[in-house]
Design brief:
Largest sheet of chain B: none
Largest sheet of chain A: none
Structural class of chain B: mainly alpha
Distance between the termini of chain B: 18 Å
Helix content of chain A: over 70%
Mean pLDDT of chain A: 88
Number of strands of chain B: 0
Order of helices and strands of chain B: HHHHHHHHHHHHHH
Structural class of chain A: mainly alpha
CATH architecture of the largest domain in chain A: Orthogonal Bundle
Number of domains of chain A: 2
Number of strands of chain A: 0
Distance between the termini of chain A: 65 Å
Strand content of chain B: under 5%
Low-confidence stretches of chain B: none
CATH topology of the largest domain in chain A: ABC transporter involved in vitamin B12 uptake, BtuC
Oligomer: heterodimer
Low-confidence stretches of chain A: none
Radius of gyration of chain B: 21 Å
Order of helices and strands of chain A: HHHHHHHHHHHHHHHH
Largest interface: A-B, 50 and 47 residues
Number of helices of chain A: 16
Mean pLDDT of chain B: 91
Helix content of chain B: over 70%
Shape of chain B: globular
Strand content of chain A: under 5%
């Protein structure tokens, strides 16, 4: 492989991962505020279909992306209403929505199956795109991929470097304390769930109007990405930068599967396509195992030097969810 | 007490009406007649004996999966991996069949072994989720989801790899087994009374397990309050594992029925989404075993009835999934509203 083909491949991974990046960032915001939006898999499909249908009928690609965000925000609003206002299980409502939105996308998307529609084109940024290596990687992408880069930076800065972001961390970790400091916990949870939902809704059109343009119904191959994105959110430890890294890692693994296919001819292509899933379980195991009780006991029994090494290793991998994730807040 | 039960029923009727209302609106929005769609779905499921038999064919795995899920839900666990457990049950059943393909054993014995094999296969797959949860700290939702995808990949690998048809491997599955390996079917119908009987026995056993035994009581204690159960001396992690094993065995049984009574071979979509659908049924019946039979039958009827839609009305058959989902969603929302309503009534 020449340097050129490797660069094109890597740039392709960045573009193909853009939808997953939006999804993990949206879920990270929502979960940071304490609400699990489990509907993600259905939301992505419905917004992919809706975004494509709107862009196709209006012949306006921007409206397609806005429609996707609106769908994501509305689904998230149902999750928020059911869990915050009506006190129902977030997991139950989210799971039902994941299935319902998926079937709704297949049902309503039927007339748009296989029709050729608009697709986002790459816009090389003048001057910057001529920088060796970096130019080819980052500055010859389409608008939605640029947006995904900016979204990573913005969410990170928002959570870790601004006052409202600090409050957001508080709402997810110690809602009672945030409440005493004057935060309207439940209103903020609504706001972040809906904003997160809009970001997740951007993932759909980022597929159907860009990296996997078109709507193909059940054979679109989009079913499953939402569940992957949920695991990547955990892998990311609710940190936007680490979550985005997870999204790119997943994109890289998928690309690797495609590249290796001609080499490993005896392995059916369908198997390579799902290879990232067991790897995801493995990473979840590595991230979580430090929280298991028996690991702590084993560590305690180890000699000092090895104990230190393993404890450090586990701490580096470990990720703990926001303390109030999934716990309803009631002032009393 | 009576009043709350009455209000419960009233609110459930409201939920049902709202669901049909919303789905009607969806249909009207695409210029399709709701009454015609519902009528076609009804005719397609209860219209004739042959079609009702198809409903029962779908009812069997759905009821088995629901029965299993009632056990994990009782222990407070979200066994989303049930879909993969169905698949592994089907794979294990196929494996046993293939192993005895040339043997002289009586077919009835081979069928029995294959069905037990399916239950063990499902239980082993569920044990993976359980071990990841109990010893690895991996939430059962994510472990289970990942394993579902692995199970599907494994099926496709087997169909296109080691178990492929002589000549060309295809999505139509492995070579069908000889007729004597099938559970006996009713004359001219695709439903096996044996499969139906097994599913009904399974739900009855689960009902009594949860309602009438010390085991069921402890399981529910674990589900209601994990920490309190632990402090009371119930070995919580063991009970979590038991519930996974029981659910996995029942899901595996569903997979075994799909192979032994319906498809007579392994196909890529052997689980047909019954695992996920079972989760919906369990939620809709609010985890009470007594309602499992009518609701599972209703959901199976929607699935089979919707097959008519593309043929008669050029609508996508996924309408059944939309209706099922909207039903469960409104059941949850209305239940939330009812609890709020009761709370308010108590405060004033």
């Amino acid at each position: 492989m020449t340097q050129e083909t490797i660069l094109i491949g890597l740039a392709g991974i960045l573009a193909a991962s853009a939808p997953i990046v939006f999804a993990v960032l949206g879920e990270t915001l929502s979960e940071r505020a304490g609400v699990i939006n489990l509907s993600m898999n259905g939301t992505i499909l419905l917004s992919a279909m809706g975004g494509f249908a709107v862009a196709y009928t209006t012949n306006n690609i921007v409206l397609g992306f806005l429609a996707g965000m609106l769908i994501g925000a509305l689904v998230a609003l149902i999750v928020a209403f059911a869990s915050i206002t009506l006190n129902q299980s977030q997991v139950a409502v989210g799971f039902v929505l994941a299935l319902t939105c998926r079937d709704l996308s297949y049902f309503l998307g039927n007339p748009y199956m296989g029709v050729p529609g608009p697709r986002l084109q790459a816009i090389p940024i003048p001057v910057l795109s001529d920088i060796p290596i970096l130019g080819a990687l980052f500055f010859r992408q389409d608008a939605i991929t640029y947006t995904s880069f900016m979204a990573i930076i913005l969410t990170w800065v928002w959570i870790y470097r601004t006052r409202p972001g600090l409050m957001l961390q508080g709402i997810g970790e110690k809602p009672a304390a945030a409440y005493i400091r004057g935060a309207n916990v439940n209103l903020m949870r609504y706001v972040y769930t809906v904003i997160g939902g809009a970001l997740i809704g951007l993932a759909g059109p980022a597929f159907s109007l860009a990296s996997r343009a078109g709507w193909m119904g059940t054979i679109s191959g989009l079913d499953g990405f939402g569940w992957i994105a949920l695991s990547i959110t955990i892998f990311g430890g609710w940190n936007p930068a680490r979550a985005a890294f997870g999204a790119y890692l997943f994109g890289f693994l998928q690309w690797l599967g495609l590249v290796l296919q001609p080499v490993l001819t005896q392995v059916p292509s369908q198997v390579l396509q799902v290879a990232p899933f067991p790897l995801m379980i493995l990473t979840l195991l590595l991230v979580n195992i430090g929280n298991a009780e028996w690991v702590e006991r084993t560590l305690a029994a180890m000699p000092e030097s090895t104990r230190k090494f393993f404890a450090k290793l586990l701490r580096a991998m470990r990720a703990s969810p926001p303390a109030a994730l999934g716990v309803p807040f009631e002032r009393d | 007490m009576l009043k709350s039960r009455f209000s419960g029923l009233l609110f459930q009727i409201i939920a049902l009406a709202l669901s049909f209302g919303v789905v009607s609106l969806i249909l009207i929005s695409i210029d399709a007649s709701p009454t015609e769609a519902f009528r076609n779905m009804f005719k397609g499921s209860f219209g004739e004996m042959r079609k009702f038999a198809e409903v029962l064919v779908a009812f069997v795995p759905l009821l088995l999966v629901t029965a299993g899920l009632l056990v994990t839900f009782s222990a407070g666990l979200w066994n989303i991996g049930v879909e993969g457990q169905v698949v592994l049950g089907a794979i294990a059943t196929t494996w046993v069949y293939r192993y005895f393909l040339e043997s002289d054993l009586p077919p009835a014995l081979i069928i029995t072994l294959a069905i037990f094999g399916g239950m063990i296969g499902g239980a082993i797959w569920a044990a993976f989720t359980g071990i990841l949860k109990v010893f690895g700290g991996v939430n059962e939702i994510f472990g289970g989801l990942g394993l579902n995808f692995v199970a599907t990949a494994l099926t496709i690998y087997l169909i296109f790899g080691p178990w492929k048809r002589p000549g060309v491997a295809s999505m139509s599955g492995t070579v069908p087994f000889p007729d004597e390996f099938s559970l006996p079917l009713l004359a001219n119908l695709r439903i096996s009374p044996w499969a139906l009987g097994i599913a009904l026995i399974a739900i009855i056993i689960v009902f009594f397990l949860l309602q009438g035994t010390y085991f069921g009581l402890k399981l529910k204690a674990v589900g209601k309050n994990f920490r309190a159960a632990y402090l009371l001396g119930i070995p919580t992690w063991q009970y979590a594992m038991y519930s996974f094993l029981i659910c996995g065995a029942l899901a595996g049984l569903a997979g075994a029925m799909q192979v032994a009574a319906v498809y007579h071979r392994l196909i890529p979509s052997i689980s047909s989404g019954y695992g996920y659908l079972g989760l919906m049924v369990a939620m809709l019946i609010n985890y009470q075993a007594i309602w499992a039979i009518p609701v599972a039958l209703f959901f199976a009827a929607l699935n089979i009835g919707s097959i008519q839609l593309p043929i008669v009305m050029k609508l996508d058959s996924s309408l059944s999934g939309v209706l099922q989902g909207v039903l469960v969603l409104f059941a949850l929302l209305v239940e939330g509203a009812r609890q709020k309503f009761i709370k308010k009534g108590q405060n004033t």
